[in-house]
Amino acid sequence: MTRMTIAEMRARLTASILSDCLDAAGRRDQALPARIRPLDEARVMVGRARTAAYMEVYHVEPGVNPYALELQLVDSLGADEIPVFACSNPARIGPWGELLSTAARVRGAAGALMDGCVRDIRAIRAMGFPVFHGGIAPLDSKGRGQIMAIDVPVRCAGVEVRSGDLVFGDADGVVVVPAEVEQQVLDLAIEKVTGERNTLRDLEAGHRITDVFARYGIL
């Protein structure tokens, strides 16, 4: 059984390796679709999900703070946590920007994930905060979408996410590792990392890829 810290996962694993290991564990629908992209491909995001469910709205209720649960979630973030925003109509809102990135970063959050849009992208890139998003747009969520619940099961871009699940994002995309299979997947991942290292060594030495695949079973 392999015990890994978040820092070790960030240094040793990739989204592709974890995706393959999730497949091997029988969880074949844990990679978010290709439209979910990193704001900065140089950043790696690894941490524990904190979920938020957005409902689409078409007005601003007088006397009601539409950001109340959003602010509560960000203020409650701990080290290596990742707010995960599931938006009922992702194209209509940009729920994440510079101010939320700043507040989350100083609390030790590992990044942010949403199937909606992100804005203030130059400022976020400059601060080095990992954000994975479904688009870039200037649209505020006010009057378009409102968080109705936090720390509940959600589907972000179609993938189920629960608070506490492991979220890993890099230049290849994002995968979510459910808590109930996390240890199995991490054990498989360490085996695969070792196998890939041996595979690369033999390929660089000029061995035929057919022979190398027969030797290690990794491609």
Q: Can you give keywords for this protein?
A:
8-stranded mixed β-sheet; two-stranded antiparallel ribbon; alpha/beta; 219 residues; Glucose Oxidase, domain 1; 2 domains; 33% helix
Describe what you observe in this structure.
With 219 residues, the protein is α/β, with parallel strands linked by helices. It has two domains: 31-177, Ribonuclease E inhibitor RraA/RraA-like (Glucose Oxidase, domain 1, 3-Layer(bba) Sandwich), CATH 3.50.30.40; 185-216, no CATH class. The protein is 33% helix and 22% strand. The protein contains seven helices and ten strands. Strands 1, 2, 3, 4, 5, 6, 9 and 10 form an eight-stranded mixed β-sheet that branches. Strands 7-8 form a two-stranded antiparallel ribbon. It starts with 5 loop residues before the first helix and ends with a helix.
Write the layout of secondary structure elements.
Blueprint: H1 6-12, H2 15-24, E1 37-38, E2 45-56, H3 68-75, E3 81-87, H4 98-106, E4 112-114, H5 121-127, E5 131-133, E6 145-150, E7 154-156, E8 159-161, E9 166-170, E10 173-177, H6 182-204, H7 209-216
Parallel strand pairs: 2-3, 3-4, 4-5
Antiparallel strand pairs: 1-5, 2-6, 2-9, 7-8, 9-10
Helix pairs in contact: 2-6, 6-7
Task: Give a short synopsis of this structure.
The chain is α/β, with parallel strands linked by helices and 219 residues long. 33% of the residues lie in helices and 22% in strands.
